[in-house]
Amino acid sequence: MNLWGITDIGSVREQNQDDYYIEQVEPDLGLAIVCDGMGGARAGNIASQLAVQTFLETAKSSPPQEWRAEPEALLHSAAQQANTAVYTMAGREPECRGMGTTMVAALVVGQNAYILNIGDSRCYLVQPDGIRRLTRDHSVVEDLVTRGKITPEQARQHPQKNLITRALGAEAQLRADLYRQALSPGDALLLCSDGLSNVVTEQEVLYEVLHGGPAEDCCRRLLDIALLRGAPDNVTAVLLQM
C-alpha cells in the first residue's frame, strides 16, 4: 500500500478550507480522509479541520482489531462524532453559524475498501482497464443528472454545480452514504475535493494514475493540471495505491 496526499489553496481563494489526513496504520490497514469546508470567512476552515480532528480522535479510541472487525460501524461512528462537533460549534459560535464540510473517507482493510461520503468530495476507483466513481455527489447537479435533466458534461459547467444538498455539520444527525469495494493489486483509490474533479477529467485522472508512477508524483501532476486551468477553488487529492 502506498499513500500520498496534497492540498493547495488554488489560484483564486484567499484561504484553503480543505483538509485531509492519511495514515498506513498497519501494512494492510490504511485510512484516508478529505474534507472541503464551507461557510463564511474562517468558518469553512474550522469546519474541515474540526471534522478531521474529531473523526481521528473517535477512530483512534478503538484498537486496529476493531477497525478490522467492524469497519463500516467505525467509519459511521467517527463521522457521526465529527458531525456533532461541527454542528455544535456552528450553533454556539456566531462567526461559525452555517458552517459545514463535505467528507469522503476510505478505510482499507486487506483487500477491501470501505468508503463513507457526504457532500461532493469524491472517491474514484482506478484500475488498469478504466476508472469508476464509487461515490455519489449530494448536490443539485447530481440530482439533475440522475433525473436525466442534464448530462454529466453539462453538470461540469452548470451554474449551480457548487450547491450541495448534504453537508457534515449541517444537521444534528449524519446522513452519509457507505460503500464497500473489493480491491486487487494494481488498483488505486483517489479521494479528492471538487476543486480537482471540477477541472480535471476522469480520463486525465486515469492516465496520470496509471502512468504516473508513485502516488506522490501522481498527486503533484493532478494538482499541476488544476493550477494550469486556473484552479478556481482549493484543490486536494489523496491517492492510495494497492
Q: What CATH architecture would you give?
A: 4-Layer Sandwich
The radius of gyration computed from the alpha-carbon positions, rounded to a whole number of angstroms, is 17 Å
Arithmetic mean pLDDT: 94
Regions with little confidence, pLDDT below 50 for 5+ residues: none
Total helix count? 8
CATH C-level: Alpha Beta
CATH topology: Phosphatase 2c, domain 1
Return the domain count. 1
Q: How many β-strand runs?
A: 11
Q: Write down the secondary-structure element order.
A: EEEHHHEEEEEHHEEHHHE
Which range best describes the helical content: under 10%, 10-25%, 25-40%, 40-55%, 55-70% or over 70%?
A: 25-40%
Report the major sheet: 6 strands, antiparallel
C-alpha termini separation: 5 Å
Give the class from helix and strand content and strand pairing.
Answer: alpha+beta
Overview of this structure, please?
The chain has 242 residues and is α+β, with helices and mostly antiparallel strands. It has a single domain, classed as PPM-type phosphatase domain (Phosphatase 2c, domain 1, 4-Layer Sandwich). Helix content is 36%, strand content 29%. It contains 8 helices and 11 strands. Strands 2, 3, 4, 5, 6 and 9 form a 6-stranded antiparallel β-sheet that branches. A hairpin with a 2-residue loop joins β7 and β8 (130-133). α1 (43-59) runs antiparallel to α3 (71-92) and α7 (202-211) packs antiparallel against α8 (215-228). It starts with a strand and ends with a strand.
